[in-house]
Amino acid sequence: MSTEDKSLHFIEQIIEENITDGFPKDKLRFRFPPEPNGYLHIGHAKSICLQFGLGLRYNAPVNLRFDDTNPAKEEQEYVDAIKDDLQWLGFKWDEEHYASDYFQQLYDWAIVLINKGKAYVDSQSSEDMATQKGTPTQPGVDGPYRNRSIEENLSLFEGMKNGDFPEGTHVLRAKIDMKSTNMLMRDPLMYRILHRHHHRTGNDWKIYPMYDYAHGESDYIEQISHSICTLEFVMHRELYNWFLDQIYDNSLVRPHQYEFARLNLNYTVMSKRKLLQLVQDKVVNGWDDPRMPTISGLRRRGYTANAIRKFCDTIGVAKRENVIDVSLLEFCLREDLNKTAPRVMAVLDPIKVIITNYPEGKEESLDAENNQEDETAGFRKVPFSRELYIEREDFLEVAPAKFFRLSIGNEVRLKNAYIIKGESVVKDNEGNITEIHVSYDTDSLSGSGSEASKRKVAGTLHWVSIAHAIPAEVRVYDRLFIDEAPDSHKEKNFLDFMNQNSLEIVTGYVEPSLVSAEIDNKFQFQRLGYFNVDKDSTALKLVFNKTVGLKDAWEERGKKELNSINNSLKEINKYFKVATKPERLEIESAIGETIGAIANYSLLQNSFKKNINNNKASLLFANFILKYSSLKEADFDQEDLSKLYLMSLRSESTFVRSKTLLNLRDLEYDEIFRNSFKDEILRLKSNPTKSTTERETEILEQVLNQL
């Protein structure tokens, strides 16, 4: 295999094999087939980049086809948004089609199937049909209407089309095999009655084709050569082919379905139904809320089309499902913005600085580099004066040894300006610092070449001149969910994992060069991150969205929390070695505080499961997670809880047994669950070990009294 072949993903390899086997290259045709029932999200971007990427690679046309077969959920708004997103991503489609373009042809083919005895009208209720269809391990049985005459089926189907029947009274089903091991082949639905207004066909139709029927036939009508979809459609391929078998003319191209792994991103939900719920429940401010994983939301936040395309190219095309870290998407964005975004200065949490030895009324215009990554970006002028704003967190009156910012008696450099030294502060009646007084070194101007300008100082701060600063609304966005898999937990609503701090709105101050900034302009606020001018911005009020920080704060937070767990596990060994109760309480308190500070639901659950083993330190730690974490008793799998309690009650350690008994006593378990350990507790009472303490015996009695 050549080097080029090795770089091909598996779908490209299939296409290459098809061409080698004689498939005409000029017959290659692909399509992107969205359902217009929501906005596109980052998962769709992967499919878009794949489909249109194949078109570019093989110089083949790519159709945009809207599979608009369900008027109950589809709207023109979604059609327009999808087209806008595709164009913004940089892709052009060859032909624009709609499944609704083919409604008459699909109906005519359904008549053909009825006449062949391969489709029939079923009048059962949906519940009866579900029962009659069987289960994955039990074959289905023929329904009472399966052997209706062709004439009766034709008459009923025409009545369905004409609107003679209410919704739910009849459906058209394909007659295939009620005993098939693939449940999708057990006489699947082809048409249902819907008295709904369609965004394109109006009220012309009273019946609408099911997706599985319309999709493959639409591919055939458009002569799509390779129908590429995600892995959840693997089981649908047999049905896709069956429908094609009924109408295929071997003089035409026959589409073939191939499946690839969809994009799964952590700290995100990809279900359009759940995204719609976020919008409808006003958890977010619309489909283009910058916290949403929609393409329009990412665009509004400040993502670039290039960064999204790069991300999709980086993750590649695979056959197996996996979860991609959202940090990779943010990395691709930083990499792109780092090359293109102009550097500016802004202060989001301002505190006033007065340079006491700088002449009152004096102003300077200093040179500032626009982007050190771009030689052609040039310089801009930044005004400097006696009174400035710096970030509040960049000053401590009394600083620790490794504080590399401004403090009393210490020097820092102001970016593009002078070295200053903290001298004193002014406080209000409540002791809050309102002003910082500093002095500056007159010979230390950046770039002046003087000895003073070359002097090394602890750090460099960004700033804005108060007299020239422009106020701006800054929307500081964070991830929408605090858990890495918010919709994967049994008996938990994904909304339980909303990040309550996903949006903070502050009034910041930006340098005057931004007065002419336009919507979608992107900047790096030095030392703070990348920001985008929001569409709410006006000539009278600048509004910025925080796109992404300069560093991955979540990765650092995740490492910190994981390290906290690991360190606590090491500390817990000391619990068994210290001699006194106060020492044990001190260790437990420290570990409890650490566990209580961890918000990552999945990390806590995984740590809990991992520590259900015969090691006494592990068992004690799992009991501490139960007691001190933010998780409730219902958040834990009952089988895991039972296993932990049984192992703990049988532990050789009185400390483990005692903590377990305390959890059984104090936590909110139902009576049945508690009683399931009664025999084990009675055994402990009647057969105390050498390690059994008076305290454990006392708790035993308290728990038994609850049973």
TrEMBL record:
Belongs to the class-I aminoacyl-tRNA synthetase family. GO terms for molecular function: ATP binding; glutamine-tRNA ligase activity. It comes from the Bacteria. The gene is glnS. Pfam families: tRNA-synt_1c (PF00749), tRNA-synt_1c_C (PF03950), tRNA-synt_1c_C2 (PF20974). A motif ('HIGH' region) lies at residues 34-44. ATP binds at residues 35-37, 41-47, 230, 262-263, 270-272. NCBIfam families: glnS (TIGR00440), PRK14703.1 (NF011291). Keywords: Aminoacyl-tRNA synthetase, ATP-binding, Cytoplasm, Ligase, Nucleotide-binding, Protein biosynthesis. Signal peptide: none annotated. It is an enzyme of class 6 (ligase). L-glutamine binds at residues 67, 211. Residues 460-534 form the tRNA synthetases class I (E and Q) anti-codon binding domain. It comes from Flavobacterium muglaense. This is Glutamine--tRNA ligase.
